[in-house]
């Protein structure tokens, strides 16, 4: 096999515009960006009005955007920007709490990443911030894995008992800038929140709750919330979007794997679905809908399941193309979605 050689385009640093009303923060972010060989500082702005001019002049690959600014705030500016000139945006603000209202609103408008400003600028915090800016820039088609970045594919995962351990095992094996992954894991909402925070600390992908209206992009992992609304998906405007669905009277679980899988069935040829360890049969009907519409469907093998319930139910309904050991699932799904391999 020939060695991989980076193209000249891959070596070109991503240009960044920093938008923040704090002079100290602009200088600090500018210094951080200039010190990373993957990035270059194209300009800075202290307000939305300045930002318009700087973006028009420099045409950056990605911007960082504060929320609190004089005049038009960052959320309002983001809404105008994504209508008139869509581009990768990293929301960076002391107000940007992980699952807060502003973060959910920003993601729904199209922000690639929403981060709180580091309270202590440790080397680890700076490296993670730079990684997030690079990942956001690559969502605009500059990834080394252009096939993944430009694809219309999505990966769906359903799990219950034993799913936490299984997900922690396989999520690092997916391409860090691969297609978006949406997960329905049976778990109380409070524990889901902690699980998401743990995953986000340890994975290279951006992990968060699925927010209604959010436009999904490469390098994202989203978990369905366990509240009064189910999480579904829809495809429009050239992208996958999260869709909140009213919980049905007979829905036993929330989040429901069946609801998540079934919502994507109209676009089955774009979907790869996996059903992991868990009690019961949630996901079997939805996976059958997906398979019949052209999706690639995989189940976790009995010998690697903590509880061989959900995969067994899906297999009994002929909803699974293949069963694989847990550690084989990510690479097999990637092969099926992007290398057009035949099923065996």
Would you mind describing this structure in some detail?
- Helices cover 35% and strands 21% of the residues.
- The protein is an alpha/beta fold and 344 residues long.
- The chain has a 7-stranded parallel beta sheet, sandwiched between helices. A 5-stranded parallel beta sheet has the order 2-1-3-4-5, with helices on both faces.
- α4 (74-84) packs parallel to α5 (101-109) and α10 runs parallel beside α11 (284-292).
- This is protein-glutamate methylesterase.
- The modification 4-aspartylphosphate is found at residue 66.
Q: Care to give the gist of this entry?
A:
The chain has 344 residues and is of the alpha/beta class. Helix content is 35%, strand content 21%.
Q: What composes the largest sheet?
A: 7 strands, parallel
How many E-type strands?
A: 14
> Could you say which structural class the secondary elements and strand pairing correspond to?
alpha/beta
- β-strand percent reads 15-25%
- Just name the CATH architecture of the largest domain: 3-Layer(aba) Sandwich
Q: What's the CATH topology label of the largest domain?
A: Rossmann fold
Strand order of the largest sheet: 8-9-7-6-12-13-14
The total domain count is 2
Number of DSSP helices?
A: 13
Poorly predicted ranges: 1-10, 141-146
Level-1 CATH class name of the largest domain: Alpha Beta
Mean pLDDT: 86
Helix content: 25-40%
At the fourth level of CATH, the homologous superfamily of the largest domain is: Methylesterase CheB, C-terminal domain
Order of helices and strands: HEHEHEHEHEHHEHEHEEEEHEHEHEH
User: N- to C-terminal separation?
Assistant: 24 Å
Radius of gyration: 20 Å
The shape, in one word, is elongated
